[in-house]
């Protein structure tokens, strides 16, 4: 008898690879009745969990329990009244059970078959346990899988002797009891545990019992084995078009696969039918290969509009770690269709002014690192200036540091190429060496250092068709000091006070013959005041003799969490600066005797953060820089974001003066309203606007929003965006890739793992 009872468990393992249906409350425990550990595993939107009370019993014996048990002369076993047939791996309960041990069992009335993590209930059940003919059939069945939270219902469930499972008129969902946000229904469903896949005919996806999508035939996985077949399609609706994508997955080999996605874009409204470059069909291709060294991926998106014009984007990436220290890789983007981009695109490639093509090799060992890189670009628009290319760039660096001394040499060689053949290009060799000695203890330190910067150029001037050479050999000296004071207050809270002083001497050296390949002037902030370099990149060596004074205070709570950071300082210049980004050097480019007053204030709370940078020039009575960012996210689900950025420029048209406001407001436990607006105070116009609603529970999440924004061409566009996810099934919808929106923030707020 134990032999045929074990077949019930095998049946269970096959049945419950598939999800389940209709709301019921078997083994359902509300959130408030769960332990703290169990509640921690739930999303904030889940009201409870299925808790399996089944326990496997020891031994191989079979236990029979009923109001009356007897066996007739032919050997048929009868169990009437609260009949239970229990064995180590499963338990069969019914009003009555009859059968011949080793041949079959027939159960009637409130039938329940239970195993670990699984339940199936029905009105009637027939189970054949004969060797070579182990079949089972359940009428009006309901089933539940505790771990996957999948429940379902079917008119009939049957299992053949070769392991195939048939479900007639059945559906499943992962929604909680009493909640039918979504269901997947099939008139007939066949499951093949051996292949790991199932098929269904006349499939409907129902939202709150309303059919919203229909598929004549659908193939879906039952386990984690990779199989070729259609993945769930996605549907997108914007203010202008309806998009349909139907991906097909190809499991070509254990180490490589492919996904092919046909796309269809149809216009919505008569006015949009004239915009034929946005309507049409296309196909996306993704190929992946995984070796023991790394991953390689190829993507292509092609779209044909109604006029037959093609738009294509391609991307190839590979990164291979050949040894623990040595690796190679490539990153190649391509747009071969004259600055056109696909209207429907499910790949990671986006529209860009310049498409990068890069190959590299790296070698790292301990504190030594090196890299060789070739970088080129494709610029589809011939009117655009092409970026400088590296043919190649070779770099290496080493880091040595102990408690007192530090030495950091960096070398770099770059062969720059100007594709437009205008201005200058050429070869640049760079050597940067930073050596310093530190003396200090727990209450203060002094660091004295020297920065050596060497540049050598072999240049070609296309305008004059001449070659020339230039070099710079420069030494800078610096002395950094700081003292730390500390006090305790309010129990275990503590505050630090750290006065800082930095002296930097970088003598002037003529650099008029040196081009600007990658130099940028760094924005003056409190942190930059104590930097030893005025410019980023390697084409400008800033001259200065300056003293930076600063005062920094940090406040820590009794858990040693940094709550407040306050900084204030100023740079005092002892000499005029003669090196700028543009033009010849030698003339004074900045004769101010001191910088603006540089301040920073930041607060880090449990659900509230605030960061401010504020620079004020008292000589000119003006604000040079003002940046603020506030984020408030209490546990209630409310989100409030506010930011403002102001950067002064002598040319008012080049000033930056922008603000952004966004909020997510809970309406109830499931509904949220979100709003965002961005405003440019220089142009006096709103640059982005988003309003919408979001809904989320334990098994579905959806957003509906209106969005208006400025596109890459500087023109305003608008659309209505719908997106929803059916947990454990599929994502449906289309997001706006042109801007970062509060709708995207809301989409990532929920803790449900979709």
Automatic annotation (TrEMBL):
<dbReference type="GO" id="GO:1990351">
    <property type="term" value="C:transporter complex"/>
</dbReference>
<dbReference type="GO" id="GO:0015920">
    <property type="term" value="P:lipopolysaccharide transport"/>
</dbReference>
<dbReference type="GO" id="GO:0043165">
    <property type="term" value="P:Gram-negative-bacterium-type cell outer membrane assembly"/>
</dbReference>
<keyword id="KW-0732">Signal</keyword>
<protein>
    <recommendedName>
        <fullName>LPS-assembly protein LptD</fullName>
    </recommendedName>
</protein>
<comment type="function">
    <text>Together with LptE, is involved in the assembly of lipopolysaccharide (LPS) at the surface of the outer membrane.</text>
</comment>
<feature type="signal peptide">
    <location>
        <begin position="1"/>
        <end position="23"/>
    </location>
</feature>
<comment type="similarity">
    <text>Belongs to the LptD family.</text>
</comment>
<keyword id="KW-0472">Membrane</keyword>
<dbReference type="InterPro" id="IPR007543">
    <property type="entry name" value="LptD_C"/>
</dbReference>
<dbReference type="InterPro" id="IPR050218">
    <property type="entry name" value="LptD"/>
</dbReference>
<keyword id="KW-0998">Cell outer membrane</keyword>
<dbReference type="GO" id="GO:0009279">
    <property type="term" value="C:cell outer membrane"/>
</dbReference>
<dbReference type="Pfam" id="PF04453">
    <property type="entry name" value="LptD"/>
</dbReference>
<dbReference type="InterPro" id="IPR020889">
    <property type="entry name" value="LipoPS_assembly_LptD"/>
</dbReference>
<comment type="subunit">
    <text>Component of the lipopolysaccharide transport and assembly complex. Interacts with LptE and LptA.</text>
</comment>
<feature type="domain" description="LptD C-terminal">
    <location>
        <begin position="349"/>
        <end position="671"/>
    </location>
</feature>
């Amino acid at each position: 008898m134990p032999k045929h009872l074990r077949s019930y468990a095998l049946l269970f393992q096959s049945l419950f690879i598939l999800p389940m249906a209709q709301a019921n409350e078997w083994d359902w425990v509300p959130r408030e009745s769960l332990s703290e550990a169990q509640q921690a595993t739930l999303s904030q939107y889940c009201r409870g969990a299925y808790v399996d009370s089944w326990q496997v019993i020891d031994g191989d014996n079979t236990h029979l329990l009923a109001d009356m048990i007897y066996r007739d002369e032919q050997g048929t076993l009868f169990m009437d009244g609260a009949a239970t047939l229990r064995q180590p791996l499963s338990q069969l309960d019914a009003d009555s059970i009859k059968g011949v041990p080793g041949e079959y069992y027939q159960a009637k009335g409130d039938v329940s078959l239970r195993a670990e993590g699984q339940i199936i209930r029905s009105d009637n059940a027939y189970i054949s346990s004969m060797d070579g003919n182990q079949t089972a059939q359940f009428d009006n069945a309901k089933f539940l899988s505790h771990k996957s939270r999948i429940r379902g219902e079917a008119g009939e469930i049957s299992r053949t002797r070769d392991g195939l499972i048939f479900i007639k008129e059945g559906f499943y969902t992962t929604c909680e009891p009493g909640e039918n946000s979504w269901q997947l229904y099939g008139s007939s469903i066949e499951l093949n545990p051996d292949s790991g896949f199932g098929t269904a005919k006349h499939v409907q996806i129902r939202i709150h019992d309303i059919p919203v999508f229909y598929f004549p035939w659908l193939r879906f996985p039952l386990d984690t084995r990779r199989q070729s077949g259609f993945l769930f399609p996605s549907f997108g609706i914007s203010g202008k078009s309806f998009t349909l994508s139907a991906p097909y997955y190809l499991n070509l080999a254990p180490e490589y696969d492919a996904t092919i996605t046909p796309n269809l874009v149809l216009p919505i409204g008569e006015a949009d039918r004239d915009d034929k470059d946005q309507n049409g069909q296309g196909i996306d291709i993704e190929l992946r290969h995984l070796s023991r060294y790394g991953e390689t991926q190829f993507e292509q998106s092609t779209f044909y509009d109604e006029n037959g014009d093609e738009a294509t984007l391609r991307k190839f990436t590979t990164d291979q770690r050949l040894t623990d220290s040595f690796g190679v890789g490539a990153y190649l983007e391509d747009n071969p269709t004259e600055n056109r981009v696909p209207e429907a695109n499910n790949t990671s490639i986006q529209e860009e002014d310049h498409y990068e093509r890069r190959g590299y090799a790296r070698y790292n060992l301990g504190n030594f690192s090196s890299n060789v890189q070739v970088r080129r670009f494709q610029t589809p628009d011939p009117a655009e200036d092409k970026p400088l290319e590296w043919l190649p760039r070779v770099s290496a660096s080493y880091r040595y540091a102990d408690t007192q001394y530090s030495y950091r040499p960096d070398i770099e060689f770059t062969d720059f190429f100007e594709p437009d053949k205008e201005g200058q290009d050429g070869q640049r060799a760079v050597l940067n060496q930073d050596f310093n000695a530190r003396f200090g203890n727990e209450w203060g330190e002094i660091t004295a250092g020297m920065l050596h910067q060497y540049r050598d150029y072999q240049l070609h001037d296309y305008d004059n068709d001449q070659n020339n050479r230039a070099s710079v050999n420069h030494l800078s000296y610096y002395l950094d000091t700081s003292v730390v004071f500390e006090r305790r207050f309010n129990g275990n809270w503590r505050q630090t006070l750290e006065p800082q002083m930095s002296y930097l001497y970088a003598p002037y050296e003529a650099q008029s013959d040196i081009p600007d390949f990658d130099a940028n002037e760094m924005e003056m902030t409190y942190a930059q005041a104590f930097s030893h370099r005025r410019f980023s990149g390697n084409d400008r060596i800033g001259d200065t003799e300056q003293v930076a004074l600063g005062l920094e205070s940090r406040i820590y709570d009794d858990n040693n969490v940094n709550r407040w950071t306050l900084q204030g300082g100023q740079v005092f210049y002892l000499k005029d600066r003669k090196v700028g980004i543009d033009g010849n050097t030698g003339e004074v480019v900045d004769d101010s005797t001191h910088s603006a007053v540089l301040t920073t204030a930041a607060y880090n709370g449990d659900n509230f953060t605030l960061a401010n940078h504020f620079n004020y020039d008292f000589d000119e009575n003006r604000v040079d820089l003002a940046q603020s960012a506030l984020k408030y996210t209490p546990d209630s689900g409310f989100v409030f974001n506010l930011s403002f950025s102001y950067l002064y420029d002598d040319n008012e048209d080049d000033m930056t003066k922008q603000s952004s406001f966004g909020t997510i407001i809970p309406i109830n436990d499931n509904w949220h309203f979100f709003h965002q607006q961005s405003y440019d105070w220089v142009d006096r116009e709103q640059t982005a606007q988003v309003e919408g609603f979001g809904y989320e529970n334990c098994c579905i999440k959806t957003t509906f929003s209106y969005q208006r924004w400025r596109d890459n061409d500087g023109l305003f566009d608008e659309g209505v965006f719908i997106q929803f996810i059916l947990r454990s099934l599929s994502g449906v919808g289309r997001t706006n890739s042109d801007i970062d929106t509060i709708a995207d923030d809301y989409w990532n707020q929920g803790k449900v793992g979709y």
